[in-house]
Amino acid sequence: MPAHVEILSLHDIGFEADIEETGTTLEANSAIKAQTIHQWLVANQPNQPIDGVFADDTGLEIDALNGAPGVYTARWAGEPAANRRKALHELSNQTNRKAQFRTVITLIRDNNQLQVEGIVRGSIATEERGERGFGYDSLFIPEGHEKTFAELPAEVKNSISHRARALAELVKII
Questions:
Q1: How far apart are CA 109 and CA 174, in angstroms?
Q2: What residues act catalytically?
Q3: Is it true that the peptide bond before 69 is cis, omega within 30 degrees of 0?
Q4: Looking at the predicted structure, is the pLDDT value of residue 1 above 70?
Q5: What single DSSP character describes residue 123?
Q6: Which end of the chain is more exposed for a tag (fewer CB within 10 A), N or C?
Q7: pLDDT mean over 95-113
Q8: How would you class 109 by CB atoms within 10 Å of its CB: exposed for 0-12, middle for 13-18, buried for 19 or more?
């Protein structure tokens, strides 16, 4: 982030509510989160200037599954291990294992709403590999690599990830 930008977490601002993700797209859920936080700030910290609020939503989109799990990535089969098992099961007879992780960030600034995205393309492994990471990291092999996100060192994963790419796009507009 540029030196003139200070990022505060939800904890830093005292926001403790759960935000229900009722959208049917990553774009919608990202906007719901940003709008909810922005409205909360306006209501609860009326004397504090709000330079901007941003929030994201991320999904794994598997080509052979018509983009599933997509917006339902975290809750596709219930919990992370079940989600991974379901992905492997759904792809068991598929030769097309192409997939992408996509992050959408919504920025609300000066009563304007903008969205940016970051995508990392890759494929789904035939079995879980690696101990690092979370979610689908042990299944996802980013293009240009032979290891899954869970096998790559954190600094490598973080430098090529969908979130890093989305944040790079966000930095361009702030």
A1: 9
A2: 57
A3: yes
A4: no
A5: E
A6: N
A7: 96
A8: middle
Residue 144 C-beta-side C-alpha neighbours within 13 Å: 6
Task: Take residue 80 and report the two structure tokens written for it.
Answer: 């992370």
Q: What is the mean pLDDT of the chain?
A: 93
As a three-state string, the secondary structure of 32-83 is: HHHHHHHHHHHHHCCCCCCCCEEEEEEEEEEHHHCCCEECCHHHCCCCHHHH
Report whether pLDDT(132) > 90: no
Cβ–Cβ under 8 Å, residues 14 and 84: no
- Tokens representing 81 are 């291990």
Q: Which domains, from first to last, does the chain contain?
A: 10-173 (3.90.950.10)
For residue 172, the SS3 value is helix
Query: What's the pTM?
Result: 0.92
User: pLDDT by residue (tens digit) across 43-70?
Assistant: 998 888 888 999 999 999 999 999 999 9
pLDDT(149) > 80: yes
In the block, tokens 């995508």 appear at: 119
Answer whether 64's CB lies under 8 Å from 91's CB: yes
Q: How far apart are the C-alpha atoms of 28 and 21, rounded to whole Å?
A: 8
Residue type at position 30: S
